[in-house]
Amino acid sequence: MSVVFEIHEKAVEGAAVLRVVGHLNAKSTTQLLEHCRVVRSSKRSVILNLSEVEFIASSGIGALLALTEEFREDGLMVRYADLSSAVDSVLRLLNLQEFLGIDESVEDAIRSIAA
Amino acid sequence: MGDPAKKDPSLGRTLGYEPVGELEGVQPEILQTLAQREHSLLSLLELTHELSVSLDPYEISDLVLFNLMGHIGTPKAAIWVLSKENRDRAVLLRSYGIVEEKARATGAICGANLMRIMNEVRAPVLVDELDELTNDVDRMIIERAEIGVFAPIFSRSNLLGYIALGHRIGNRPYETVDKQVLQSSLGILGVALENTSLYGAMLEKNRQLAQANDNLIEANKAKSEFLRNVNHELRTPLTIITSYAQWLISEEEGDGERKEFLGTILAESKKLNGLLERVLDFSALSADSLEINLTITSIQPTLEQFYMNRHLGVSEGLREFKYDADSILPVARFDLNRLRQILEMFVDNAVKFTPPGSRIDLRAFASEENGQCRVVVEVSDNGPGIPADRMRDIFVSFRQGDGSTDRHQGGMGMGLAFARELADRMGAEIGCRSELGEGATFWVSLPAFDR
Predict the structure, then answer these.
(1) DSSP percent split of chain B into helix, strand, coil, nearest 5
(2) Closest partner CB to A90 (pick from B1, B8, B97)
(3) Which among B143, B170, B201 is the end of a domain?
(4) Chain A residues with CB-CB distance to B2 below 8 A
C-alpha cells in the first residue's frame, strides 16, 4: 500500500518550516533530504513539524541525525517540533531527544532559533 | 511526551509485525532493553525489505547508512567500496556527517591499512581496538573524522568495501549486540552490492552480445547477398563467354589481329573465372568444408614455379617483379595449392595498390620464433603503403586497405581475409607491416623442420 508523503514549506524569519506528512522511511527520506539541502544552500535553518508523521523507520531516524549534523557544520540549526507519538516514542527509546533539539511546538522552535 | 518504555506499535505493524504488548510487573529498565532489542530486529527487517527494491549502489549505500545511523544512534557515517580497476583502492561512495574531505583522506591514506585489517579481522572493529593495528598518521586522521567503528562488507568471502560509523550519541559504547547487528546488516549489504554488480555486468554483457549479434547478422546478410550476386549474375554469363571465345578461336584461321583479340577475351574471362573460384572457396571456408592437404617438403620448387607463372604478367603491367630465396631452406609444412593461392593474393594486392613503375619482391628465408624453426615467404612492394589505422582491418572480409568497400581499386576486399583463413587452416601465421609512403610487406610464416 502506497502512503502519501508530502512536505509543505512555510518561510519564517531566518528559517523554513517544513510540515511533513506521511511515513518517514527509506523512500521518503531522500525526498526530505533533497528539500532540506535546498534550504541549507540558502543559509537558512529548518524547523521540521513532525506532528503528521505516522511512522518513522530506522532510515528516517538516520536521515534526521545526518541532517542535524550537516546543518550544524554550516552554523545552521534543525529543530524538530510537535512530534507525533510515533516519532516521539522512537526518539525516546533511542535517547536522541537531546541531540536532535526538540520543541513542543513550531512557535517554540522559532523562538529557539531566534535565541 | 510518552513513556520511554512504550514502543511505537506502528513501527512493527507497517512491516507486518505485531509487537508484544506491555508486560505487567516487568521493570522499566528491562522493558527499555527489550524495546531496544525489538527495534534492532525491526531495523534488520526494514533493511532487508528496503534493499530488495534497489539496484543502484549509491541508493543502496544511502539505505544502509541511514538505517545503521538510525539504529546505532550516530550522526556520522561513510561507506567506501573497492574499485574494480584497482582492488587496492577504496572509493568513497557516500559520507554523512563526516566532512567529505576528511572521509576522502581516511580512504586515501588509511584505506590500504584498513582493508588489510578488515581482511584479517572480518568483523566490526572499534577505533580503540585499532590502536595496535595502525600507525600514528592513520590514528590521527581517523580521530579527526570522529569515527567510532569500522566494519567490513563481505560477499562470498571477498572484501567489497567497508563502512565507518561515528561515535554514538550520548557517548554510549558500542555493545556486542550492536556489533552483531552491524555485521548482519553488512552481510545483507554485501549480497545487495554483489547483486548490483552482477546485474550491471550482465546488462552490459547483454548489450555487447546484442550489438555483436546485430553486426554478425548484418555481415552475414551482406555475404549471402554478395554470393548470390556472384552466382547468378556473373558465373552463368561468364561460362557462356568463355565457351564462345574458345569456339571462335578454334574456328579462326591464321594469327591475325582478330585472333589476338579473341585470345585476350578468353584470358580475361579465365581470370574472372579464377576470381569466382575464390568466392566459392571462401564460401566453402565459411561452411568449414575447404580441403587442406598438408605435406612436409621443400618450398623452393613451389615458389619458383609460382614466380615463373606470374613474372611476365606482373612485368607486363609495368611492375618489376623479383624473386629471391635463401640457397638452403629447411623443409616446411604447407598445402602447395593453398600456399600458391595465398601468394596469388599477396601479389594481386601488390599489383593493385602500386602504380606502374613500382617494384614487387617475392622472398623466402628461414627464421626462428620461440625456438621454433619457420620458413617465411614475403611479398613486398614500394607502393603508397597502408595507413596505420587501416592495418587492423586489413585481413577482414570485404575491407580494403583504404578502408572502403567500393571498387575503385578493383577486387572485393576478400582476398586477404581468404588468405588469412587459408593460413589458419594450414597452421601458418600471416601478417603485414607497412609504413605510409614506404610500401607494404605481406608475409606468411610456415612451420619448418631442419633436415
Answers:
(1) 55, 20, 30
(2) B8
(3) B201
(4) 85, 88-89, 92
Question: Length of chain B in residues, anyone?
Answer: 451
What's the structural domain count of chain B? 4
Q: Could you list the residue range(s) of the whole structural domain that residue B385 is in?
A: 295-449
Domain boundary (B177, B201, B225) is at: B201
Q: Which residues contact B184 (CB under 8 A, 6 or more apart)?
A: B44
Report yes or no on whether pTM surpasses 0.80. no
Q: A1 and chain B: CB distance < 8 Å anywhere?
A: no
User: Are B20 and B44 found together in one domain?
Assistant: no
Question: What b/e string do you get for B88-107 counting C-beta neighbours within 10 Å, with b at 16 or more?
Answer: ebbbbbbbbbbbeebbbbbb
Q: How many CB atoms lie within 10 A of CB B77?
A: 28
Q: Which residues pair with A20 in a beta bridge?
A: A7
Are residues B177 and B93 part of one domain?
A: yes
Of the candidates B97, B93, B107, B95, the one whose C-alpha atom is nearest the C-alpha of residue B57 is B93
If asked whether residues B119 and B50 sit together in one domain, one would say yes
Burial class (CB in 10 A: 0-12, 13-18, 19+), B135: exposed
Is residue A28 less than 8 Å (CB to CB) from chain B? Answer: no
Give B311-329 pLDDT, tens digit per residue: 877 877 778 889 999 988 9
Domains of chain A: 6-114 (3.30.750.24)
* Same domain as B194, residue B176: yes
The residue of chain A with its CA nearest to that of B54 is: A27
Query: What number is the ipTM of this complex?
Result: 0.91
Q: Answer whether B97 sits within 8 Å of A65, measured CB to CB.
A: yes
Whether B197 and B240 share a structural domain: no
| CA angle centred on B323, ends B318 and B325, rounded to 5° | 165
Please tell me whether residues B437 and B334 are part of one structural domain: yes
Do both B21 and B43 map to the same domain? Answer: no
Distance CA B441, CA B313 (A): 20
pLDDT tens-digit series, residues B99-137: 888 999 888 888 888 998 999 999 999 998 887 667 888
What is the Cα–Cα distance from B279 to B422, expressed in whole angstroms? Answer: 13
* Averaged confidence pLDDT in chain A: 91
